[in-house]
Amino acid sequence: MFSNQRLAKPSDFKHFGVTLMTLRRFYLLAIALAAALFSATAGRAAPVAYWTFDAIPDDVVGPSDGVLNGGATYSFLDVAPIPGNIASLELDGAVGSYYGVTPQIGSVSGSYTVSAWANIRSNANPNNIFSTRRPADQSFDVKFQNGTLIHGDIGGYNQAGTAAWGNTAADAALAYNLNQWYHVAYVVTPTRWRAYVNGSQAASGVYTPNTAILQPLLFDNAHEINIGRYNGGSEHTNGFIDDVSVFNYALTPAQVSALATGTSPLAIAGPDRHGALNYIPITNDADSQISAAKTYTHAIDFGTGSLGAANVNGVQFDAGVVGNFPSGNGSTNLPAIHGGNNAYNGMGSVGALFQDMLYNAGEGVITLTGLTPGEGYDTRLYIRNWVAPAAGSRQNMIEFDTDGDGLAERVTRINEDNATNNAPGFADINQAYALSYTFVADSPTLTIRANQIVGNATFHLYGLTNEVTDRRPIDSLFSTGLDASGARLLGGQPDPHYVLVSAPQGSQAIAIINHPVWAPNDASSGFIGVVDPGATNVAVGEYRFATSFDLTGFQENTAEIVMTVFVDNTLVDVLINGQSTGITLSAPAGTPAANQTFAVGGGKTFKLNTGFVAGINSLEFVMTNDGTAVNPGGIRVDLGGTAVPIPEPSSFMLGALGIGALALVRRRTAWARRMS
Questions:
Q1: N or C end of the chain: smaller count of CB under 10 Å?
Q2: Please, which residues bridge with residue 635 across strands?
Q3: Residue 118 CB partners (closer than 8 Å, separation 6+)
Q4: Of 513, 521, 530, nearest to 600 (Cα)?
Q5: Class assignment of domain 499-643?
Q6: What is the pTM of this model?
Q7: What are the boundaries of each domain within the chain?
């Protein structure tokens, strides 16, 4: 705890004559792209709001100060068991007794964490600890109830951009005692929620397919914060509440445990961003990129089809099984095996990889084990359609968790039945491909989850490889519509990574709620423009949006960027460091069928592997809003990239002596022995 000392706020510096706003404008004018880069690499640390209740009615980290109402007061006698704690918020349970806050920091949405201490004195009524359900609803609250339950409600925005509930029973069973302190935390992401009590996970869940919320909302200017009551004016807490903090990202289990054992929220580090996605079309053995010259930790062909386990370009795959992987190097909860309905004839030996699969209704979980922390890997899932696109639409959210904390470091959406209508955006609707995820291992495991977003069919796992790679993600690259932690921005919020270079209308790049006929915003990226929401008409003409990234420490000639672009109306060009790439794209006309939502807005994937320079690089997206009169316009870019780091000086010496090559031969030889 920080006793009763308040941290400095921007208003405290007004008397210096030069305001912080003036300095900020000068800074952005001078180095706009560098400012975007700084926010990308710095991340966000500590909470965005923190009320200590140490006899101060203030948010000690920001401007969201609150007001004591009714019988709410401070207690110096009963405080949470935190070192150095001075006081707590005491509430008498009477109507009108609560601590009210009108947020002054915009909104918190996407991924977030709410942490609080509570001590309940009576169960006569539900004791609401933290609620944002007023004046608008479909947001969040958590309460102690009936002596047996911690109840949570989680809402936000669905695929159509309208308010919706994701789960109104995000509950944790707890036979709690009166007059005893408990630490409670809710960790919410676009695909799941977790409830913690005293530092341990007490419950978790996902959202309902077809009505799933893609953008959980904690608060904005239409959702006030009430601490100690439900915002509707009921469920007043009778007891004590202490040290309430809000983070605009998902805390890890270790971080939640630290808060429950007395660590100050101000000491919690910001989130990590890991990994880059790629989509590799496969039509034959050569373009599968499977090679005996590579070092694999895993090569699994799932299913029991007539062709048996694949052998592609000299790499013998292990035959997939239900449960644990062969050689004990991983597991899956996909319990059913299908022999395959056809074997992609004419593809060569890789066709055997796409014949048969494991499958599972609901959430599919794949865990790879035996990885080396600090090593770089390229994990690939091999994907193909199962039925004609008109007959099926198995849309899944794929999550990659590199550190075993249950939180995804990277997310993408795919439609397994349609290779055109999803992130890859291939021209051939039946294209088989590999979904590639390049990352640096944080732990010995990688967990991959597949959750249904639309449809009620199954996730199919045909094959998987995991290869050791020298490539590393370029973490300073950000997709549109994301904040510094990688969480989705809410409509109307400035995008910290993109600058509006020129436009017939507007002064900055802002996140916008997608037009109903556009590809829906998701956890990986969102539309940006000049006016929110996306259905709003904007001026006809050319709009230029720029971002920057840093290749310091990388060999720039090895860089590759993968971008999936959605645009209304036309992408005229993409400039890399001011040079044209010749990339163009026009949005399709009309509104597609319900199972083709990914195509709306012109989704297509492009790759860049030339034009990079050492250090700071810039990308500029030139788009036009076409027509003769004002109409909706916007752009969305799902962006990622990898490059090979510059070797350390010692590595150059080893290379000159041939030692590096000898070590590589030994690794490949060991792999060959294992696979034979």
A1: C
A2: 528, 567
A3: 127, 129, 144, 181, 182, 184, 237, 239, 240, 241, 242
A4: 521
A5: mainly beta
A6: 0.70
A7: 47-267, 276-473, 499-643, 647-676
